[in-house]
Amino acid sequence: MSREAPPEEEAPGDGGGGGGGGGECQGEGGCYLALCARPVHFEKANPVNCVFFDEANKQVFAVRSGGATGVVVKGLEDKNPISFRMEDKGEVKCIKFSLGNKILAVQRTLKNVDFLNFIPDSPQLEYTQECKTKNANILGFCWTSSTEIVFITDQGIEFYQVLPEKRSLKLLKNQNINVNWYMYCPESSVILLSTTVLGNVLQPFYFKSGTMSKLSKFEIELPAAPKSSKLILSERDIAMATIYGQLYVLYLRHHSRTSNSTGAEVVLYHLPREGSCKKTHILKLNRTGKFALNVVDNLVVVHHQDTETSVIFDIKLKGEFDGTTTIHQFVLPPRSIQPYQIPVAGPASVTSQSPVPCKLYSSSWIVFQPDIIISASEGYLWNLQVKLEPVVYLLPDKGKLMDFLLQRKECKMVILSVCSQMLSEPGRGSLSVIATVFDKLNHEYKKYLEAEQSYTMVVEAGQSRSNPLLKRPVRTQAVIDQSDMYTHVLSVFTEKKEAPHKFTIAVLMEYIRSLNQFQIAVQACLLLSLESIYPPAHQLSLDMLKRLSTANDEIVEVLLSKHQVLAALRFIRGIGGHDSISARKFLDAAKQAEDDMLFYTIFRFFEQRNQRLRGNPSFTPGEHCEEHVTFFKQVFGEQALMKPTTF
């Protein structure tokens, strides 16, 4: 993999602790990292075909014979690859499209970059820009917008505006500075330059709509005093990524084997737009060897080639604070990325062959930020993904598990399933654990309610026009509200009647206590769920519903979708809405449940409703229940239909 210890720090055969081989997903809980199911497949690198990756557009370029026999561009988001040919004017060093794929830039020499417009009805003529600084060599270039580009040379940076219709470039700004290497973070539009002899003084620049700002430079602390005055800090030990909305520079520090250190570590430097860059977090790897870094779902993932395992760190979780920095251990035990099968390409007759297992943690893998892994030798580009289900079994501490899950993007269904498990055997939690989980969920729920309330107040006060930056709060999956809790957890829990009566009441009361603690108004649906075990709750809930009837339709829909037809009917009766509900919707759901007695009960309920409301048990044509009447007759016979009662 791409980041490794300097040779003098290597020791043969030392895996630095950690698990065994790459298939290590057995035991308690499986693999919590996986390669995406639909990778980008491209022609693998070979003497004729050169492969390039553009980190801004997340595109792979396969350039055959310098472009003369074709260039194919593929991206993870792209439905259709871009294919074209260009004149072979020498070896391609770097090739990238502008944001939006309208202008292609190609570097073939150390002195200039060639441009080609991909704009409809625009002539396919190349134009060239030479770097302005005399005797400078171009190290590479980055597009910062659809028409702005930065050349990085060994003597500084040059910021240009591209004028495609004039087929020329205009210099906007340049800065002289000795450069060893550079790195670009497209998500934050920041270019980082390595300067000075040792390479450990880093100078960031920020680009936005035609402006270039110099941020404060900072020094990376090297593990030991350098013995020689040569470049020590390599770009392979540095990464830049946005974590929880903040830009960080990640430094992989390989400790010398002679020191008393327990292994390598990743040091995080927080890089703000204004103010100085500070060392804020240290991630302890407790092992040595070759590493590579990714950032996925705000988690720092560190891959270890020797043991073919990876670990994850979450800087939001509590660590050990030493006054300036927070020291973190990995959240979960080391595990391999989930085994991946490469499908066999070829005609249908051949593809019946079983797929080939992909060599994980291969030395030919190259990682890019935030979550890209490329195997140039196999011709694949993957997104790395975090799987949350296995985490549930690897983090037995429910409080810590909730802290971890609440920060993840796709967390809702996993959190609700944890809540359900926690209330049922064999993994039933103690009331104190259940209370902790409810409090953590309601803390997030309250934060969202307050943000929503503040936004509404500003809008109603008419101040939103004067504040164009005001945005409606985003409802993330971490917001588990009362209807989520009722439909997915509490209604199922009370229906099952598995738990002791006292425990059931205690759980419901605990949830209501937690809501009260966070000053969240209790919705009626919760009190209705108490009705079967605590009758006085029924009247209380009805009184509330006269004032508040927000999530009722949603609750009915969810209960029906889960085939809890009787629970849905009980709920709607409890709130007094049973005279206006659609008979067909309930009969459809009852039929899908494939339970004849359930269907009979629901059918009979609506016959009785018809009799009460219209004096006749039969359905009107407008209710569209003909197929259900036919089905009822087939199963129970016509004589089972209710007869009109006459007075």
Automatic annotation (TrEMBL):
One of its GO terms (biological process) is regulation of autophagy. Residues 408-523, 524-621 form the Mic1 domain. Pfam families: RMC1_C, RMC1_N. Residues 1-21 are annotated as: Disordered. Residues 51-169 form the Regulator of MON1-CCZ1 complex N-terminal domain. This is Regulator of MON1-CCZ1. Signal peptide: none annotated. InterPro entries: RMC1, RMC1_C, RMC1_N, WD40_repeat_dom_sf. One of its GO terms (cellular component) is lysosomal membrane.
